[in-house]
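Sample entry (327 residues):
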Amino acid sequence: MSIQHLISIDREAKISIDTGRLKITFTQAGETHLIAACDIAVLILSHPCITMSLAVYQELSKNGAVIVSAGEKYMPCAISLPVAANIDGAKRPFLQSKYLSTETFEKWWSQLIESKIYGQSCSAAFFDDDLSSRLKIIAGHVELGDKSGREAQAAHIYWPAFFKSLNANVDFRDKQGATDPVNVSLNYGYAVLRAIIARGLVGAGLCLNFGVGHHRKDNPFNLADDFIEPFRFLVDKIVWNIFYQKNISAFDRDIKKKILSSLLSSTVSIAGKEYRLFHGIDWAINSYCISLEDPRRKLLLPNIPSRPGKSSTVTSWQTRQFIDETQ
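Predicted structure, serialized as tokens:
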């Protein structure tokens, strides 16, 4: 299996295709970089003076890559997804639509929320052991469809403690219009993670509109917003480590680089084994595809306590490389 890259370009550049390779030319610096298009998972464009040919879009799409356009403060503002070439055609979207608004969807949603809260407990272990223990208890009591609101209960105690441990100027999650560096960093990390997950879902022939717990009619990424939940804790831990005991006043290119490089080198624990980020996402998505065929099967998600006797070993999954072009 080839190594897959996440490419982030932050300065003026010209991108073209040269015999199946992405050719990135920085004219001002007189630099040229070549990388096989088939090895690229995500391409992030963060400068207004980047030009790219249609052939680049076509080659990257053919190889299943996602193109993310970033705007002010490097925040992603658009995502270009490849059209999935799936041998099952419309089979999986048909199965998704079959289970819409059913108890089966509620079961999957409760599993996703349980995993999310366990992830928050892992993150909380960095700054509050008692909070981590409380979150584990909450995760163990998530009901079908999270009817009792355990997700909101966990967030209510998790986020104030998270920001307090960083001595941040805010004590709440600001999802839109954030100006403080901690919230901006969280939003950036989530946006990149969302793009990676969306790529995996589309590649599996799934319809992103048919969410499990997210059902907004104006949201074309409902399913991606479902499956990001169990992986959010990775961004939380990375951002906490960046800001802990440091006086950082603004989100900048260096923070962006740290978030991307740390995210791609992260591991998740699934069924008692450790997996690199891309492989862990693949496991979760594949388990959902299997569950669509057989709803009795549970989703394989991060941080859910494994059965006694199972060992935790690192798989032989190649580390995803990160390339960030800076001046």
